[in-house]
Design brief:
Helix 1 packs across helix 4. The protein is built from ten helices and no strands. By secondary structure, the chain is mainly α.
């Protein structure tokens, strides 16, 4: 069994209402008590299967802005970014993640395809999204 999943199971049992309200747990001296320890990131990643949408959006923008990335890789990153911001919550998170300025900055790229993709992503972000339109 994955150690992260085992940790997650232990954490869930320790922090469940049933464990806190179990009368036998209070009288059993060998019973393990909740430690109140926080859930570690590895356990969360095991449960949810990888990086969050916010992390993926930042990674995609890092590739788009990288001078070392090929044009093909930048276009793939733009496509991934656009798919992520189709979700309105992700589009609304762009401001807090600091992604608006780099995205708008791509409208001045020397590469026509990068300007096109930036415009496409901007259109996706503001589509049916009043909060993003006010940005």
């Amino acid at each position: 069994m994955d150690p992260g999943m085992n940790q997650l199971l232990k954490w869930g049992i320790e922090n469940s209402e049933a464990a806190r309200n179990d009368p036998s747990a209070a009288t059993d001296p060998k019973a393990e008590r909740p430690s109140g320890r926080p859930l570690n990131q590895a356990a969360i990643d095991s449960l949810f299967g990888g990086p969050s949408d916010s992390e993926l959006m930042k990674q995609a923008m890092a590739v788009i802005e990288s001078p070392d990335a090929s044009l093909d890789n930048k276009l793939i990153a733009f496509d991934n970014f656009e798919q992520l911001i189709e979700i309105i919550d992700n589009a609304n998170n762009m401001e807090s993640l600091g992604l608006w300025s780099p995205l708008v900055g791509q409208l001045e790229s020397k590469e026509t395809d990068l300007r096109r993709m930036a415009a496409w992503c901007l259109g996706t972000a503001v589509q049916n999204n009043v909060k993003a339109q006010e940005r």
